[in-house]
User: Fold these one by one.
Assistant:
Number 1:
Amino acid sequence: MFARFRRKRINPVLRDLLQETHLSVNDFIYPLFARSGTGIKDEVASMPGVYQMSIDEIVKECDTLKALGIKSIILFGIPNVKDSVGSDAMCEHGIIAQTVRKVKAAHPDMFVTTDLCFCEYTDHGHCGVIDPVLETVDNDITLDNLAKQAIVHAKAGVDMIAPSGMMDGMIQAIRGGLDAAGFKNLPVMSYSTKFASAYYGPFRDVAESSPGKGDRKSYQMNPANRNEAIAESVADEAEGADILMVKPALAYMDVIRDVRNNTTLPLAVYNVSGEYSMLKMAAKAGVIDYNAVMMETLLGFKRAGADIIITYHAKEAAELLQK
């Protein structure tokens, strides 16, 4: 006798009862991009529906997010002035520190995470201080700066730190800095397995963070390396990360599952700009059912093992989940 799997699919109520993976608005973190000024809400051409915003507009946006049930954001900063070390990122009056203070004052119930890196703040577009001999980021000098940046964000009132620079030892350095400054209870969500991916293209537009010279292959991961991807996340767990992350998500479902199977920590994925824009452009071309493909994609991340999804689709998905 052959197995009749379809018996459990014919009745829609039974089909829903037996669904193994579920998507909830509580799974989402929504990215926001802050810049100086007032009344600024500039849409990014390569990412329809995504904006560079002044802080006052971000505060308003939080009202919209909360009405949709979205309780968590991650902030990226676009400073007016960039330099070789990314000084604005380590300044208590910098764009991110200001944004955190204003958002938490207006929305104390919004869970605010900050992306901890230097690519948006340096004039060369790389994720730390450049070693002129090796022509790549100086790992250990950048570790000290990351710890300084984390403390600035902590003092501003952030709820979680998310370091994304893929420096070796960054979690240990940041954790040590936070603990020494009295922020022992501030969680760290590490971009623990982050690939040197072509999927980041549109993000460079919104964050204005393209490298002026070269690329990031000397510190972000080779997309071909599966075992190293696992090792990177396991190492960050050992250093004290509270949550791990795989970025990008769509082309790395196997890695998401691998990391999930090799750690007991919660796991986030970043549904990155290129993944988002591809769906938007395909919908514009009329070749997909946008809502259906979006929800299937997000569900796929959960099925692969993600607990948290950072996604530009969060508002649209939340609206569909409310219906």
Note: The radius of gyration is 20 Å.
Number 2:
Amino acid sequence: MASLSEPPDAPPHDAAEQPPAAGVGRAAPAPEAGAVTSSPGDPAAPAATEASPGSGRASSSPRGRVVALTGAASFLGRNLIGILEEDPRIARVVAIDIKPPDTGGSKLRLHTIDLTAPASEERIAEVLAAEQVDTLVHLCFLSSPTPATAWAHELESVGTMHLLHGARQASLRKLILWSQTILYGAHPTNPNFLTEKHPLRADPEERFFADKMAAEREFNAFGARTKGTTVTVLRTAPILGPTVQNYLTRFLARRLVMTMLGFDPLWQFIHEVDAIAAFKLAIDSDFPGTFNIVGDGVLPLSTIVRLAGRTPLPVLHSAAGPLVSALWAAHAAIAPPSFLQFLRYVCVADGEKAARVMGFRPVYTTREALLDYTNAQRLRDVRLLQETPA
């Protein structure tokens, strides 16, 4: 049953995806590595006043912008840092994580902070004030589910509360949160396309969903209480591409891909490059509210398996639940049993609001994102492409 399991010696969790493999896809090359750790009082290099091309209100400062990112060593964090380093409107990039990103340059200021620690909120407040941060991007979320649910809760739910308590003591202009469209949940009553007005109905007993939904509630409450701070929530469709690694890429990397007998739900993806571009757009201009960030088009799961060059393994739902439960308990499964619902029912989001308000239009369709991932995975299958070590 290799389609939903991974070797027992695989890492039990991944708060940050693995580093990208070089030379694959159309993503821009990352800048030279070399994170600089500095004291909070270091002066910033001058930068030009920002004039954003986006449809929202542009952020401007004669000294240049200062952007902080939690989860700076994650896939989204590393790539955003690389882009921000090259933007002349950005004076400093403040990385907040327990390990340094590998894409930092002269603008990077690294602060090692563990959001699960009780004293982290005081440290966050000190860093945000000392670095004069105007924009905080919260990316410190698991890209894949983990059996270590207590730790995941401390990181995502409690960690978000620590972050916001610290941010409340600073004068932030903008907060941006990474969320995911799978939080809508897969249900037989779902419409063909879920808008931002639909409730989040993912299984509340599953920590991977519950902690992220709690983080959204905390952010929205913060925005309602705090005047003068723009709060933006970007719900990305499952991210796919040649370099990102998460539960979805591991699921599609199996020779045999588990499906549910008699079900063929529609899926959608967002290409890794488009996901990064959406965050840069939200950093550049002010877009208060929640936005679905999705690729154009949808594909039936059967077509996805075929295009990925895999073999479907149809399983009765009554048998799949106990099987995946046993594998998950043994730390040998990619995802817990609650994810089986996505093999049965549709969970597809509408990206019209992001296009209309943010001006976000993905470069890659769902199909193109899948094919870009598939082309890279085929090279990995024949060992012509090696993963970059973590």
Note: The mean pLDDT is 86.
Number 3:
Amino acid sequence: MNRRPTIAILAGLCLAVSAAPVPAAARPSATAQAGAYARLAGPPGTPPGACPTGASYGSPLPSSSVTAPRIQGGFSFLEGPVWVADGGYLLFSDMAAGTGPYNVQPSTIRRFTPPSAFDTFISNAGSNGIALSADGQQLVAATHDQRNVSAYRLNDRARSTVATNYQGRAFNSPNDVAVRSDGVTYFTDPNFQRGNRPDQMNGRTSVFRVVNGQVSLVDDQLRQPNGISLSPDGSTLYVGAYSENKIYKYAVQPDGSTGARSVFVNYIGGPDGGTIDCAGNVYWTSGGDSLVHVYSPTGVQLGTIRSGFTGTTNVAFGGSDRQTLFITSGPRNDSGLYSVRLNVPGYPY
């Protein structure tokens, strides 16, 4: 998901937010939740309908080196794309330069409706990485304006809170989110958008988990954790550590807890936001070389996708069959949205 106040960058994945304090009518019933768990052999993974059942896939890329055309540029700094299937549009964060005494970056959620329409969806959203709830009614957003994780209802843009703090201490600047189909939410907390606000995390940048409104620590030993994604079966959590040039992975248990981290790949160029396709292939953006690096589930590099020549920040699958990869990329004040058709469908964020 994203980067520092001067160079800012991001990322994402998708699903539900029973962890968010939303109206009871919007929450699934206990019976529905129990039924969902009964149908799952392991940890909850992709949202309903995100990946076809029983499908087999070949190579995800048409060639080992792919170029994605630009749809439109001229934005401030783009991050966190997410596809909204019911509406047939893509939402993404557009972050301006820091302002005010604390040098906090304003952020607007913009909408792209294919083939060419752009408009403002939520002004002053404060968002970086965003995801979509399983019922398709809310956005779950890493919001650096309030140093928390928020939810926005799509129908009226009303904002609620998913996670406020950890043990009474304010987060740095939540950056990216991954939400399981049962509402368990994972997010990264580097300090890229903290600005001049006080450091209440004692210099640590971390990964957190939210279950039923309770925040717990996943890992506080990573240097600037950035993008975060879940595998389709929900068994693996991937985190890009920007300042370490590594992508780590964690085994995920059915209750949402995680095991010890291990290195998925040693990365060149500063890993930003990422996503996963339905075959489990991993797509991760790089701010350094401006590429999307594509890896098999075992960490073998399958190829790259180029979108512009600087500042590639995040990716999300979308389109009617979720085989279009949308990419946010470009320098500040000429950041752009790119897309390319691929062979395997994937997550909408």
Note: The first strand starts at residue 65 and ends at 67.
Number 4:
Amino acid sequence: MNAVSDLARALQTAPTASLPSSLFGLPDQKPHERVLLAADEETGLKAILAVHSTARGPAFGGCRFWSYDNELAALNDALRLSQGMSLKNALANLPFGGGKAVILKPAAIKDRTALFAAFGRAVQSLAGAYITAEDVGTTTADMLGMQATTQYVSGIPRAGAFGGDPSPKTAYGVFVSIERGVKLVLGRDSLEGVRVALQGLGAVGWHLAEYLHKAGAKLVVADVDAAKVQRAQEQLGAQAVGINEILSADVDVLAPCALGASLNIQSIPTLQAKLIAGAANNQLATAADGDALQARGITYLPDYLVNAGGIISVAREYRGEGEENAVMAEVALIANRVAELLDRVKSEGSTPGRVADAWARSLLVKPS
């Protein structure tokens, strides 16, 4: 494992708008505790492992495998995602801090197993300060393979024990959040006939679509993969729209389940939904975009509150505490936190994004 960086070259060539303002953390925030750059020439690995906070315990968060425009875009993603994990784990009352890793997807993958083994060595080098699991672009097979090089990995199918793909748990947490939000914000006692737009039908988005369909919701869907859209039409009676139309669809609820920053200065004026709750991380491009949603009468349920089902699942698995019914019951409690958030918003006269942020940061201390 060779720890190297091409940041100097990237700083000279990357567009100014894409540059993070600091290599150590996000604007107006405390620096991250640790940011590791790891590369392995033989496998083509280039990875960024960001440890935001270990105040509550070891940093826990998934590994993203993605094609980035440049290395600094990857760094910015790692910094944003890892901070989000600190807030997510705190609100979920887990004894873990926040961290995240991103692997810059090579143009050609020589040996995926070897690449993830090299990544596992990078994780192991942090000696337990960071625990990894699945995220966008990674699979349970990747996590299984990493067991050969690190003990600090979860989201793994385990014979005779709880474990495996956390996507259904993430989807269930979003589902119960939508259920509660529809009741408290839209004043409807069930999801029967409620129109929900799903941006993205990946591992989490598809499970969410199934939950919503079973509850009687009417689905409007979009995905870059036409086969997934067709499957949703055939199996779930979904209405298909283009990826450029999904955010502005005429629906009651919008569920962003693709990549982040979809709620921004361009998209917000076009939204028709009155409630937003989805699985994608970092849905707001900026904190001010949360204010803009509120000004338009749109209730945004922060992603790190509603999409915590996956981390609840892999955390319980990692600690050897998991059991399917008990974990699902714990994930269901996210709905109660949605209700508490909306109560706090009313009493504080602020926006959901800012209230949730302050609430989570107040919990970034060692659990009692």
Note: Residues 88 and 304 are 5 Å apart (CA to CA).
